[in-house]
Write a structure and sequence with these properties.
Bound molecules: NADPH dihydro-nicotinamide-adenine-dinucleotide phosphate
Strand order of the largest sheet: 5-4-6-7-10
CATH architecture of the largest domain: 3-Layer(aba) Sandwich
Shape: globular
CATH topology of the largest domain: Rossmann fold
Number of strands: 10
Strand content: 15-25%
Number of domains: 2
CATH class of the largest domain: Alpha Beta
Helix content: 40-55%
Structural class: alpha/beta
């Protein structure tokens, strides 16, 4: 089975749109502020899509664009203004940042209640303590995709390839919460293939094109491919995941394609987080 991330992401946006439409006409709309620095083409595409989908579902979104020369202290001032701005309930700083700006410092300046990327240490701590928190968008998207296929994860063995703060680690927390037995692997892991062969759920988030081969997975495995790798094949440029999709898709229980799997879920989960942040802020 191929998991249709595009459709599931669209369904989520429809549900969010309905909920936003039902807000009373007099109340402020949910608002999302995105800070974009420099002219990285991929970042521009991501931000454009975030703006487009936010608008489509009734979220008031604004992109604040800055030149790469912006000083860290001035960026922090902008964030403080957004923290105090009642029209914005979500603040996102598009990564990567120029090398003279420390992303950890910048993220920790966003108030946790508006940290819709879920990267602030307070949100990270709350997620790992099992408390209510804003959850990083990509792992949350993976979790929702898995939920479509597996009603109950209890006792399943989930193997995660990659231990980054934005993917592997929060993914592990979400699956632990669902009573999975979780193995996090990384570039120093020995016998990766053998570990993957024991997975009921395999999350590949290494950023290595087609590294997971058909003989790494067992037939009942559900495979979620987070990787986005730009490669050239037979003279054509294309985007592929971390999984050798063509050779695995017939073998496993379910798998996400790249593109059209996890990617679309990430933006929908960002919008979901914005609405969650809005509801919490407005109710306080
Ligand atoms: P990072 O580079 O931050 O982390 C990669 C992780 O994979 C590291 O933990 C690294 O190990 C591990 N790794 C690298 N090579 C291997 C290997 N050969 N075997 C086992 N583990 C390995 O990447 P990100 O988490 O930021 O992104 C991962 C991928 O997901 C990328 O392709 C990225 O483009 C994609 N992505 C997709 C998103 C989406 O919306 N679909 C959103 C965000 C990212 P170590 O820690 O030891 O270095």
């Amino acid at each position: 089975m191929i998991i249709d991330g595009k459709k599931i992401a669209q369904d989520l946006r429809e549900r969010l749109k309905k909920e936003i439409n039902q807000l009373s006409a007099s109340s402020i709309k949910p608002g999302l502020a995105v800070i974009l620095i420099g002219d990285d083409p991929a970042s521009h595409i991501y931000v454009k899509n975030k703006e487009k989908y936010a608008k489509e579902i009734g979220i008031n979104s604004k992109v604040l664009r800055f030149d790469t020369s912006i000083q860290e202290k001035n960026l922090i001032k902008e964030i403080h203004q957004l923290n105090n701005d009642k029209t914005f309930h979500g603040i996102l700083v598009q990564l990567p940042l120029p090398s003279h700006i420390n992303p950890k410092k910048i993220i920790s300046e966003i108030i946790p209640a508006k940290d819709v990327d879920g990267f602030h240490p307070i949100n990270v701590g709350n997620l790992s303590s099992g408390n209510e928190s804003l959850v990083p968008c990509t792992p949350y998207g993976c979790y929702l995709l898995l939920k479509e296929i597996i009603p109950n994860f209890s006792g399943m063995h989930a193997v995660i390839i990659g231990r980054s703060n934005i993917n592997g680690k929060p993914m592990a927390q979400l699956l632990l919460k669902e009573d999975c037995t979780v193995t996090i692997t990384h570039s120093k892991t020995k016998n990766l293939k053998e570990i993957c062969l024991t997975a009921d759920i395999l999350i590949a988030a290494a950023g290595k094109a087609k590294m997971v081969k058909a003989d790494w997975v067992q037939k009942d495995c559900v495979v979620i491919d987070v990787g986005i790798n730009r490669i050239e094949e037979n003279g054509n440029k294309k985007i592929v995941g971390d999984v050798d999709f063509e050779n695995i898709k017939e073998k496993v229980k379910a798998i996400t394609p790249v593109p059209g799997g996890v990617g679309p879920m990430t933006i929908s989960c960002l919008l979901n987080n914005t609405l969650t942040a809005y509801k919490k802020i407005v109710s306080n």
